[in-house]
Amino acid sequence: MMKSAGTAGRRPEVRYTSDQVVHVEGLLSGKWVGRYWSADGRINVPHEVWADDAFQLAINNELLASGWKWVGARELDRTDRGARHFVVELSHAGRPVTVRVHTLADGTPVLARWLEITNRSEKPLALTAVCPWSGRLIIRRNESPGEATLGYFTRQDWAFEGWFEWERLQPGVKTITCDQGRSHDDPFFILRNEASGEYFIGHLAWTTQWRMEFERNDSGVLFRIGPWAAKTALRVIAPGETIATPAVHLGHVAGELDSAVQAMHDHLRRFVLPARPPERSHLIQYLVPADQGYHIPFDEASAVECADVAAAIGAELFILDYGWWDVTCDWYPSATRFPRGLKPLIDYVRQKGMRFGLYVRMEGDSGDVPQSKVAREHPDWVGPSNTMNLHLPAASAWMESEIGRLVEEHGLDLYRLDYNPSFKFGETPRDGFQENNCWRYYEAFYGMYERIHQRYPNLILQQASAGGGRNDLGTCSRFHEPYLTDGLWLPRELPIYSGLTLGLPPENFVILHLAHGGGVGRGLPQALDTILRMSYATSTPQIFTGITAPTVATLAPQRRARFLHYGRLYKEFIRPLLPTCKVYHHEPIHSRGGVTSSGWFVMEYAAPDRAKGWAVLIRTGPTDTDTYLFRPRGLDPGKTYQVRFDSLDSTAPSQGLHLLREGLPIRLESTGSSELILFDGRAPAEAAGRKEGSP
Questions:
Q1: What's phi and psi for 481, nearest 5 deg?
Q2: What whole-number distance in Å separates Cα of residue 254 and Cα of residue 239?
Q3: Is residue 254 pLDDT above 50, yes or no?
Q4: Domain co-membership, 153 together with 82
Q5: 552: buried, middle or exposed (CB in 10 Å: 19+, 13-18, 0-12)?
Q6: How far is CA 269 from CA 105, 273, 480, 518, 615, in A?
Q7: How confident is the model at residue 488, as a pLDDT?
Q8: What CATH number does the domain containing 643 carry?
């Protein structure tokens, strides 16, 4: 970071650099403005500057666009993950407000930005609008038309998470808004400069009620992004109080779409997503709900049978899912189905060599919540859709204490949260203003799980929300594992996965294939090898009881062998690479196509040193031909690879240069058919150290 401030004839200005990114901001005529972006490390010449607001802030419905005065700038201690932390402080001349502009630079092409806003008056102030980051992303130059293409999630509907499409920006303002209490379209975008080929890729780390705007005008393209409420205050700020906005994570990359996606993945893995011990990462999971699968409803005896099946197929973590309690928000085992409590089952699971996880709907959202003890004693804690009012400090404190009790009482290895209501947050009169409840709700929610993670660092935190209704970075940065979707049937889940992995790394997702309404027996495609290739080769495996068998005795040996086969491939080849692999989107999403552009699903994963990799190919619908020409992009042209075709159980050598240039024709005759290809370019001596029978 470089700055000049307070010297004669010079305006306050800062320059942020991270990897090859250069971004300049400064104070101009009382406005804090963005001055310059570069993705290739080039510093701007003196006249090469812009003048667009770098943030937007409205207090009591007054936009504070100008009137800002320089207070100072400094570098704070590095974050606990090693990112450099810079703060610019500004004071407003007309309103008693101070803003501190926080920016993290971590050595990747992605910067993180949020605001701290302080009320310096003796009266409450209403924050009525805020964009933590805004400004010009693309400048129109004489030789270019200033054209840009925007990619974003286009559907808010249940089971359409990650529904990514490209759209050429037209002159005017493109507005994308979420006004729901649960968001299946996360605040994520990719913007491509059609003149230079450069990309911007960005997240707003916020769960719901947000707005993104992209304005194409004669000068180029500007953006604005932030939380949003239609008619009320976002947050009332008490006298002397300081609040923090959600962060914007914005990357700028010169190169291909793959490079932009990989830069964001690298940033999130190293500096944002919560850390956990390797021995508790990406475990093979077996999930047993009471409302789907073979045992409906289940009890202790049937859960024990499920644990036997889980151990038989090589699971490492057993999750007792929905329905182990009697009344929602009374988080105690059912007196009729688990009369001895959960301890006998937990002990049995651990005797089988597995860890134990437990599902809860901790925020309520069920019709029987009013019958619970907490609702009877504190009816004001229960809000719309029988959801707990987390914006009330007493309600959130009770919930946090219940989480701690469950973790300690049952010795949990994994805590699985679900949240299903669909409603718009209400309003609360506060200090003469109408305040939307969303901001305080998620202040409490985020803070609660940050403290839970600090208190129980070995606890795996997993979350779902009617599928993937909370797969935004605000929630995902507090949980280890997000749940992909409830659209758990082929081919629906494949484009969803393709879209969501543009912004989030694939290894943390869990996908309960074929659990949609039981899946089994409903006429849905059940190509076992395709299901298992998706389960074990694209994310953390989570196996649904409905695709195995009710007991070990009824588990066909051939079926068990397929689970063990893919479990071995996962443990020995795929899992060691997953946390750092580079991801390449081939189909259906690529630089010119969205989720509906293709009848193929093709994803490639490669080690950073290009020594190893793998690819998953699935035919998802009608295509012009039954053969897909797969050209890997993550291999080294100078290496020789052992190429293993899983469907053929066969391996052949091939030069990396030939693979990249000529590709591999893969014939998949019917919808739902698939192939898993493994590439191993290790030297013979290194490869000889593999376990017998490993790929």
A1: -135, 115
A2: 45
A3: yes
A4: yes
A5: middle
A6: 15, 6, 11, 33, 21
A7: 86
A8: 2.60.40.1180
Question: What's the CA gap between 500 and 31, in Å, rounded?
Answer: 36
Residue written as tokens 């599902």? 359
**Do 401 and 459 belong to one domain?**
yes
Record the tokens describing residue 133, joined without a space: 């980051």
189, 513 Cβ separation under 8 angstroms: no
**Radius of gyration of the chain, Cα coordinates, nearest whole angstrom:** 26
Q: 320 and 173: one domain?
A: no
Of 138, 463, 409, 119, residue with least CA distance to 273: 463
Same domain, 394 and 440: yes
Residues 430 and 446 in one domain: yes
pTM above 0.85, yes or no: yes
DSSP letter (8 states) at residue 441: H
CA distance 155 to 485: 13
Q: What is the pLDDT of residue 692?
A: 39
In a domain, 304, yes or no: yes
Residue 567 domain-assigned (yes or no): no
CA distance 403 to 451: 11
Per-residue pLDDT tens over the stretch 62-104: 999 999 999 999 999 999 999 999 999 999 999 999 999 999 9
Question: Residue 55's domain spans which residues?
Answer: 2-271
Name the one residue in this structure whose structure tokens are 């491509």: 192
- Ranges of beta strands (E only) in 77-158 are 84-92, 97-105, 110-119, 125-131, 133-139, 148-153
For the chain, the average pLDDT equals: 93
Which bin fits 146, alpha (ψ -120 to 50), beta or left (φ > 0)? left
Quickly tell me which residue has 């999630």 as its tokens. 153
Residues 669-678 pLDDT 10s: 999 999 999 9
Domain count, the chain: 3
Tokens 């935190």, residue located = 461
Q: Express each pLDDT in 41-70 by its tens digit.
A: 999 887 778 899 999 999 999 999 999 999
pLDDT score of 11: 87
Q: Which residue has the higher pLDDT, 617 or 420?
A: 617
Please check the confidence at residue 691 and state whether its pLDDT lies above 70: no
Q: Which two tokens stand for residue 146?
A: 């200033």
- Tell me, what DSSP letter sits at residue 649? T
Phi, psi of 690 (to 5 degrees): -70, 155
CB atoms within 10 A of CB 526: 17
Res. 494 pLDDT band, cuts 50 70 90: very high
pLDDT at residue 180, rounded to an integer: 81
Q: How many residues does the chain have?
A: 695
Of 520, 555, 590, the domain-final residue = 555
The answer as to whether 385 is a domain residue is yes
**Buried residues in 365-389 as b, exposed as e (16+ CB within 10 A):** bbeebeebebbeebeebbbebbbbb
Interatomic CA distance for residues 70 and 51, integer angstroms: 16
**Cα separation of the two ends of the chain:** 47
